[in-house]
Amino acid sequence: MDRMLALRTFAAVARLRSFAGAARQLRLSATAASRAVALLEEELGAPLLLRTTRSVSLTPEGAAYLDACQSALDQLDDAARRVRGEDAEPRGRLAVTAPVVFGRMHVLPIVTGLLQAHPKLSVQLQLADRVVRLAEEGVDAAVRIGELADSALHQARLTEVRRVLVASPSYLAARGEPATVADLAGHDLVAFDNFTANGEWRFAEGRPVRVEPRLLTNDVESAIDAVLSGLGIARVLSYQVTRRLADGSLTRILPASEPPPLPVTLVFPANRRGSPNLRAFLQAAQRALRPADLG
């Protein structure tokens, strides 16, 4: 058995959830890809993948093995680049994930600049409002907003954002501007469900406010559009409304009561720190993202 081929095949199948897709990526036949993984499972004495006619998924043993397998492959690829003298120049594939709105507004311009500066680099940018499992989904690094739980992933602070209350000037003219957090109970509120944990908004004063929104949506841009139309007051992340605050179409409310800022962090496996692709992305992100620009 060609162990390296078997490991690469297993990692590709696990990432793509497809033997056919992995075979195309590795330029193998589907039969050869299936045989390579079967031989690896036979040698390990444990099933790594669950196969049905419609899907492929990891077994618990496969999920545990994938982390170690991908780590080993990454280290070998990094070592090969160093031997070839390619360390200084990003090349090949870099996979990055970020939240949808933040990614479109701030990560995509960083990626575009990298691609223009490094013609041998290609980037897979996955925008998703969920926690992406890096090793399992074949992703090199993730931009995450908020306090992070302890993990084996390396963390590099990029910037910070704030949770801000906003309303349109027309709404405030009609209903008045709240002077305290308690005054929010007398106002129409707009919320989006992944930003209202337990139906509460927390403030610097420490006491949470129970939110009973007139409009609850699962999309932040819809919430912002509703506020722009004069429907009520919303709580959003500062970067989501930077331009609206600057042009006066939205007004920031109760800034003294805002809770502490949220960190924006790049997380990646510690063994990827030497990757020229990742290093170039991190350096570009640290240059581009400044707290003053994000509120």
What descriptive keywords fit this protein?
single chain, 295 residues, alpha/beta, Arc Repressor Mutant, subunit A, D-Maltodextrin-Binding Protein, domain 2, 3 domains, five-stranded mixed sheet, 11 helices, 14 strands, 41% helix
CATH homologous superfamily label of the largest domain: Periplasmic binding protein-like II
Task: Supply Rg.
Answer: 23 Å
Mean pLDDT: 87
Give the helix tally: 11
CATH class of the largest domain: Alpha Beta
Please estimate the helix content.
40-55%
Indicate how many domains the architecture comprises.
Answer: 3
- Structural shape: elongated
Helix/strand-derived category reads: alpha/beta
N- and C-termini, Cα separation: 56 Å
SS elements, strand count: 14
Strand content: 15-25%
Low-confidence stretches: none
Family: Belongs to the LysR transcriptional regulatory family.
Keywords: DNA-binding, Transcription, Transcription regulation
Pfam family, one: LysR_substrate
Protein name: LysR family transcriptional regulator
Report what the structure shows.
This protein is 41% helix and 22% strand. A hairpin with a 7-residue loop joins strand 9 and strand 10. The relative contact order is 0.15. The mean pLDDT is 87.
Topology:
Elements: H1 3-16, H2 19-26, H3 30-44, E1 49-51, E2 56-58, H4 60-83, E3 92-98, H5 100-117, E4 121-127, H6 134-137, E5 141-145, E6 153-161, E7 163-167, H7 169-175, E8 189-192, E9 200-201, E10 209-210, E11 215-217, H8 220-228, E12 233-237, H9 242-247, E13 251-253, E14 262-269, H10 276-288, H11 291-294
Parallel strand pairs: 3-4, 3-5, 8-11, 8-12
Antiparallel strand pairs: 1-2, 5-14, 6-14, 7-12, 7-13, 9-10
Helix pairs in contact: 1-2, 1-3, 1-4, 2-3, 5-10
